[in-house]
From TrEMBL:
It comes from the Bacteria. GO terms for molecular function: oxidoreductase activity. Belongs to the short-chain dehydrogenases/reductases (SDR) family. InterPro entries: NAD(P)-bd_dom_sf, SDR_DHRS6-like, SDR_fam. Keywords: Oxidoreductase. It comes from Amycolatopsis mongoliensis. This is SDR family oxidoreductase. The lineage of its organism: Bacteria, Bacillati, Actinomycetota, Actinomycetes, Pseudonocardiales.
Length: 251
C-alpha cells in the first residue's frame, strides 16, 4: 500500500530542483500531483518523467504571488476529488554571498516579502478546502535557524523566521479542523546550488562538515521525508519541524 494513494497534492514551484524531487516522491507514493508554476515547459518536462515512471501528474501555469491565480487553481484541484496536500517551493529571489552592509534594501527585503505573500496565499487557498473536508496537510520548507557566520545569506533567514511564525499560527487555528501544518528543515542541499555559484565547493564542504553523518541531505532524502510527513502515518505531526539535516541542526 503506497503512502499517498488517493491523495491530491499541489506542488508550487514543481519545476524547480526541490519541487521536482518532492513531486516525484509524492507520485511514487500514489498521489495525483498537480504541478504549479510559471514556466509550463519545465513543468511539462517534470510531469512527463513522473508519468513515464507510472505516476499521475497534471500541469498548470499559476502565479503563486497572485491571489486570483492561486485561488482559481486550488478550487479546480479540489473539484477533482479534494485537496489533501499543499507544498509551496517557489524561489524567493534571495541574494546570497553579499554582506548585509553592502546589500541593497530591495535585495534584502525581496525574499521576506515574497515568502510571506506566496505562502499566505497558497496556504489560505488550500486550507479553505481542507477545513471543509476536515483533513489535509500544509507543508513548509526552510525553518528558522541560527545566524550563519561563514556565509552571507541576506534576508533568507528572516524569511524563514516569518514563515515559521505563520506555520505556528496556522497549526493552532486549523488543528481543530483536522488540518496539519509541518515544516521540513535541512542544513542545506548541495544539489540545489547552481553551477558557478560563488564559493560553491567551500560551501558544499561546509554543509557536509557540520553534519553528524558526514554527508548532507539529498533531494531524494527531502522527497522521501515529505511524502511520509504528508501521509496519514504522520497524522500526529503538526505544529512541528522535521529535521532533515543529517544532524547538522540540533533540536
Amino acid at each position: 500500500m503506497t503512502l499517498l494513494a488517493g491523495k491530491n497534492a499541489i506542488v508550487y514551484g514543481g519545476g524547480g530542483r526541490i519541487g521536482t524531487a518532492v513531486a516525484s516522491a509524492f507520485a511514487e507514493e500514489g498521489a495525483r500531483v498537480f504541478l504549479a508554476g510559471r514556466t509550463r515547459a519545465r513543468l511539462e518536462e517534470v510531469a512527463s518523467r513522473i508519468r513515464a515512471a507510472g505516476g499521475s501528474a497534471e500541469v498548470a501555469e499559476v502565479d503563486a504571488l497572485d491571489a486570483r491565480s492561486v485561488d482559481d487553481h486550488a478550487d479546480a484541484v479540489a473539484a477533482e476529488g479534494g485537496l489533501d496536500i499543499s507544498f509551496n517551493l517557489i524561489t524567493h529571489g534571495d541574494v546570497q554571498g553579499t554582506p548585509l552592509i553592502d546589500m541593497e534594501l530591495a535585495d534584502y527585503e525581496r525574499p521576506v516579502l515574497t515568502a510571506v505573500r506566496t505562502q499566505f496565499l497558497t496556504a489560505r487557498a488550500a486550507a479553505r478546502h481542507m477545513v471543509k473536508q476536515r483533513s489535509g496537510v500544509l507543508l513548509f520548507f526552510g525553518g528558522a535557524g541560527e545566524p550563519v557566520r561563514e556565509f552571507s545569506v541576506g534576508g533568507l533567514q528572516v524569511a524563514f523566521h516569518a514563515l515559521e511564525a505563520m506555520r505556528r499560527q496556522l497549526a493552532a487555528e486549523l488543528g481543530p479542523h483536522g488540518v496539519r501544518a509541518v515544516t521540513l528543515r535541512t542544513g542545506g542541499i548541495p544539489e540545489t546550488l547552481p553551477a558557478g555559484f560563488p564559493g560553491r565547493e567551500e560551501l558544499e564542504e561546509n554543509i557536509a562538515g557540520k553534519t553528524m553523518l558526514g554527508r548532507a541531505a539529498t533531494l531524494a532524502d527531502v522527497g522521501a521525508v515529505a511524502a511520509f510527513v504528508a501521509s496519514d502515518r504522520a497524522r500526529t505531526m503538526t505544529a512541528s519541524t522535521v529535521n532533515v539535516s543529517c544532524g547538522a541542526l540540533v533540536d
